[in-house]
Model the fold of this input.
Amino acid sequence: MIEDQHTQSPLRKRARHTTSIDITASESGQLIMVSEESEGPVRDDAYYMADGSCVLRVQNTIFKVHRSILSKDQSFFGPMFTLPQGEFEEGMSDDHPIVLQGDTAEEFKHFLWALYALPSELTIVRSPKADLSRLIDIAKVSSKYSFKSTETWALDAIQEYLERNMSPLFNDNPLIRMFPTLSTRSSALLESEGQIARLIRLAQMCSHSRLMDTMIQLLQKLMSGSLHYSYLAMTLADEFNLRDLRGAAYLEVMQTSVFVCPGVGNSDTYVEGDVQETSEGPQRLVVSPMQQLRLLSGYHRLSRAWDRLRAVPPQFEHAPSCGATWHQHGCTQSWTDFWKEKTRSEGVLNLDCANVLGRLGIIVKEFDKWGSATYMHHDCKSAARRSIHEKVKQIQQALPDYFTEGGEY
Done:
């Protein structure tokens, strides 16, 4: 093991230098300690302005910009600049900067670009060459420091980018092409997952319902192409309590994967989010213990819901003319016999018992084939068909409630 020489020398101040120790593994597998001296704060090459009146530090970067610019738009900075200062006024020199926490230097630099860019430079955000990551950074920092008009401008630009048919995100198939649907966890897939997560977090932070709806729609489309996106949708839905996305994501994972918890099994270490191929067919997805509990709860509740539904067909109100021209009891019996027969058909039984929506979909198709060979009144047949669709809608709306821990089972 190599010792850091600085640790044995007396403590002393070092101007603009910091010392850190990085623990790394050598080729032989032994742990070694390497001392790394990193330079102190550095001035940004674009936004350290000679005539600037406010010095800011973000991470290890010093910016010097104009207070008049930072005070615009009823921002957070305006009232802050009016606060009384101590012996050393913060923001007047590199030695006493205003330190901003929680941002990266790159994020803040992108934000300053939006404040200082010329009109001709800003037009790029409305073109296919727009930088989505930069727009996200601008919206995020603007929201944090209450630059309301800048935040709105950036969010509108992001929304236009996502909806622009000729953008890399849309092309032939809106909302799909930008995001790969590979079965392996490639760098491109990881990058797209990170971008989607950033956009959803931004929509949540800024309470931008239109952007949130767009991203939920995107994830719902992507889930059918990759289990990685199903897991991402499930995790984000849990994090932000996105009810509609949560039900669809949990259902997709339940129906298309074998889900396991992290740990060691079959000599392989499981890590949450991993997707593994299996010889049986369905891919194996590693989920958290809480997610596994919700998935199992959903399977059990949906299976029980089918048992109840199979036993009693959806109810409908007979047409007024049914009692006058038909035997209403015969109409009801015909509907009951149809339901009893079709819920036991081969196509229905080939689907998993928890696939209630899939089974109801098959029954709808069978109902459409039923034709005139029935003793049901025409208006009653229409009402019965609507009752199946209403049942499908009820289950879809209630899906998030099936995938919850606790409660009745």
In short: Confidence is low (pLDDT under 50) at residues 1-37, 165-177, 181-185.
